[in-house]
Structure formats: C-alpha cells, structure tokens
Amino acid sequence: MRRFRRAIVAVLALALVAGAIYAIVAVLQRSETLVTERCVAVVGSESHELATDQAANASLITAISVQRGLPPRAASIALATAMQESRMRNINYGDDAGPDSRGLFQQRPSQGWGTEAQVMDPVYAANAFFDGLVKVPGYESMEITQAAQAVQRSAFPRAYAQHEGMARAFASALTGHSEAALNCELRMPEAAGDPAAVVDELTTVFGTQAATVQGRSVQLDITGTQAWAVAHWAVANAKTLSITQVDVGGRAWNREKRDGWQSSTAPAETVTITVSAPAT
C-alpha cells in the first residue's frame, strides 16, 4: 500500500511539474518582449535576413525601381550597393575615404550628388543612384560589382559581391516577382495605425495609387507582380506604420499570428492593408 501511495505521489508530482513547464512555455510564447523582430526573404533554397529598419529601406529602394519601371536586376544592384555602403541605413556620416559621404548610398555632395540634405533623403538618394545606373550601358547583364562600381566609383569595388544573395532575394520579393516570399516577425504595435499615412507612403515610393480607405484598411485594386510588390512593401513597413494584416492574391500575412503567409478568403484582385486599432 505504501508503495502504491508513493507511486501516486510521484505521478502527481510529475504531472504538476509538467503542468508548470507547459504554463511557463505558454506565457513565454505570448510574451511580446521575447519576440525577435526581423524580416526574412526566402526565394528558392536561399533565405536572407535583415533587421526591420534595413528591410524598410530595402523596400523603399525597390519600390522606387518599380515606380520607374526598371527591371528587378536594377533593384538587386541598388540593394547590394546600399548594404555595402551604409548597411542599408540612412547614416549621417562618412569615412576617411569620403568624409562628406552621407545617406543610404554614401553619396558625396562634393562629387555632385546633391546637397547634404538631398542625399540624406532616401527617396532622393535612391533616385539619384538609379539615375546613374540607367546611364551604364548593359548594366542588366553586368555582374553586380561591375554595375555598382560604374555608378559609385568605390575604393573597394569587389566588396559589393558579398551582398549579392541578400540583394537578389529581397529584390525578387519586393518587386513582386516572388510571391509570399517576405515575412517579418514583429511585436504587436503600441500605437494605433493611420490608413492615411499608409496611402501617403505608398504614393511617395510607388507613385499615385488608386487606394480606397475603409475604416482601418487601405484597399488597392491591383493584381500580379504589382500587387505582391505593394503587399511585401507593406509587410516590410509594418513596424513603422502599425500594420497588422496584409491580404493579397488569396494569401494573408497576420502580424499577431506570426505564421508567415497563409491562405485567405480575401479577393485575389485586391490588396488590403489593415492597421492597428486605437487602444480601448
């Protein structure tokens, strides 16, 4: 009898321990502070990761290439260049080789790239880079290092090559040529989103969009690569714009679920971007 009682006690103790572990794991999984925020582009067998601010800058650069009607190769060259020059961040300092270099592409006012204020404007800087790139004959078929160097005139021209994989993956996703290829894992927003701000940012980088605001959502009647370009842009900018869900092409990205792109019943011919609600 004593052995039986001891066995029962041991089983109960193990059950209590297992229950406690399960509860702790569940709490940790729900804890926003433990979420590692990041954005990952997966194209084919390649997976590349950027911090959320880097991904947002990558989406801006790529969106401008889409607005200009440039091929995805142009975006790949630009992303590799920006990663090498500034780590894809809009920095306000240069280095010994270019003390007046500034911005995403480390463009130098002393070499005719524009004023310091202009090159610190990411939209201006990206357009200035593409202005230079399209003047390079045959840049579409060049190695990234050759094309980037033709524009930048860097002291380290071969350094651009190390970023080619990342650049190709993010360019393919952000130009819309690879569907459901970009996912950002984020904590939930701390502030309400503003659909008008989403429309303003979309217009800035993609040009005028036929967008309709309905409550907390922005709807765009677009399909194909353009739709996925906008959808991936929205995911890349979800952190700063408090975006909680993106629906496109029968797929949905949900910030809270953190399970990537999943099947959706939303119309295939519409992109819907939803922002967070005000706190109650």
TrEMBL record:
Source organism, top-level taxon: Bacteria
Protein's name in the database: Heavy metal transporter
Lineage, uppermost ranks: Bacteria, Bacillati, Actinomycetota, Actinomycetes, Micrococcales
